[in-house]
């Protein structure tokens, strides 16, 4: 069966080539405007991930040190010195979950890029310094007078060894706590 269309009705069906090109051009302009949002989102996610990782690495070092007794070698200041400093490097392992080769080491890993370094410092003070002088700028060596409460200032600094670039890097965080013995 044949249907007769009114005059000019055939021209109104669908889009012309020019209308399609104009619509495509408008869509491209909008897409180009949105692309920088995706790039900045990737950058912010990477930086946020690095900051969270640095914070977690620092907190784990402090939490471990706070649970130790005063005479544990990990928080005991060597004779004649005013502070103990431990430098550590992150050994990434092979990337598997629960990889036993991954973790902190006091010996720089050879042949593997260590993306994080962690420095933990222990300084010792007497409570008389904090109460009387209000000053924790002059730490004692390990011959502190036992009549006073001993305070240990634990400072952990975690730093990314990544170079700054398109996706950031160079994150650094310093955490401190005081433990009384």
Commentary on this structure:
- By secondary structure, the chain is of the alpha+beta class.
- 31% of the residues lie in helices and 24% in strands.
- The chain contains two helices and five strands, in the order H-E-E-E-H-E-E.
- It has helices at residues 17-66, 127-133, and strands at 83-91, 103-105, 116-126, 150-160, 172-180.
- It is elongated.
Secondary structure tally: strands: 5
Number of domain modules: 1
Sheet with most strands: 5 strands, antiparallel
Q: What is the terminal separation in angstroms? A: 101 Å
Helix content: 25-40%
Helix count, DSSP H or I runs of 4 or more residues: 2
One letter per element, helices H and strands E, the order comes to HEEEHEE
Shape: elongated
Beta-strand proportion: 15-25%
| Derived structural class | alpha+beta
Mean pLDDT: 79
Q: What's the structural blueprint in terms of helices and strands?
A:
Elements lengths: L16 H50 L16 E9 L11 E3 L10 E11 H7 L16 E11 L11 E9 L1
Antiparallel strand pairs: 1-2, 1-3, 3-4, 4-5
Brief summary:
The chain has 181 residues and is α+β, with helices and mostly antiparallel strands. The chain has helices at residues 17-66, 127-133, and strands at 83-91, 103-105, 116-126, 150-160, 172-180. It has one domain (37-180).
